[in-house]
Amino acid sequence: MIPMRYRQSQDDHTMYIKHSQEGKLTLILVYVDDMIVARDDEQEKQVLKEKPGAQFEMKDLVKLKYFIVIEVAYLKKGIIISQRKYVFYLLTEIDKIVCKINGVPIEQSYRTKSDEGNSNVNEGQYQRLLGKLIYLART
Question: Which residue from 85, 86, 87, 102 has the least number of CB within 10 angstroms?
Answer without folding.
Answer: 102
